[in-house]
Amino acid sequence: MRNLFSNTIFLAIIACLLWSSAFVGVKIGLQYHSPFQFAGVRFTLSGLLLLLYFNNYKEYRRQLVENRRFILLVAFMQTVVQYMFFYSGLNLLPASISALIIGASPLFISVVSHFSFHNDKMDWMKTLSILVGVVGVGVITFGRSELPSGVKISLLGIAFLLINNFVSGFSNVLVAKKPKGISPTVLSSSSLFFGGLGLIVISIPLEGFGLKAVEPEYFYALGWLSFLSAAAFTIWFTLLERPGVKVSELNTWKFLVPVAGALLSWVLMPDESPDLVSLLGMLIIACSLLVLNYSNRKAARQAKRKAEQAKLEAIL
Questions:
Q1: Is the dihedral of CA 219, 41, 155, 233 positive or negative?
Q2: What is the pLDDT of residues 22-52, one digit of tens each?
């Protein structure tokens, strides 16, 4: 059991399942709170939760001071910029459609990784998977202008989420190159906290004080979103710094996000239900990600064989 909870694949799946539940929570919260301010409150609380969990404030402060520039850069990219586009897009789209588009993020991350790491390059199979994934997003985007329930689909919302995917790619690469002197918990806690405060500051002149009359479900959604952000980001940051873990390979597990996110949306959101176009787009994106995953595994096997061959030649 201990080995299971330290297994990279198992932890990646847990993080992705946590993130898949965010779409419903955000849609509930946006009924009561303006987008940027709601995001800011959520991430500020997440950062505080992780600070309490770390429970060594002297060490936390040391790492914070020594790595303050890097932390602020991650906070700006990963929390402020990325989630401004995420919340803006989700505010304009149904939760299920948002989940399907965000689920294509591994394709964008593969492109960014290609230009950022010498050992994480694109090949013809990865390129093919990206093209197929783009087709899947296109099917979801242009397949119809509204859901069967009559909910409109916003092209601007789709554009915001696609930009979010690219920013996510840059953020993952940035975190993978983080300094060795900062722990994943401190990085996720501080970047979420300062990024959350930044979103709150930005939201005031743009949105005013956007909290409307609230119901208990708002606080349930806020509490769950704060917890899942704290847990998922810490898990992900930990995995990104593990030796031998490639950014593009790890992110292929995010194919679970659109499937689980759409399913939860169809079950929990009263105005959303599955339709043929969404299912077709989901299937195409899943196929592209499976091809990408196969390509990554093939490259890993080839690298392992080359390393074993080089070791044998050195012995001889």
A1: negative
A2: 888 888 898 899 889 999 999 999 999 988 8
How far is 6 from 122, CA to CA, in rounded Å? 29
Handedness of CA 53, 56, 57, 62 (dihedral sign): negative
Q: Return the ∠ at Cα 83 (arms to 81 and 85), rounded to 5°.
A: 75
Burial of 165 (0-12, 13-18, 19+ CB in 10 A): buried
Q: What are phi and psi of 146, to 5 degrees?
A: -155, 160
* Phi, then psi, of 152 in degrees rounded to 5: -75, 150
Q: How many residues does the chain have?
A: 316
Going by C-alpha positions, the residue among 283, 308, 252, 298 that lies closest to residue 123 is: 298
Amino acid at 235: I
List per-block mean pLDDT (blocks of 10 residues) for the chain, which spans 316 residues. 70 88 87 91 93 86 92 93 90 78 74 66 72 71 53 78 87 80 89 95 88 84 92 86 74 73 77 74 77 72 76 69
Task: Fill in the amino acid letter for 82.
Answer: Q
pLDDT tens figures, 190-242: 999 999 999 999 999 988 887 777 788 999 999 999 999 889 888 988 888 78
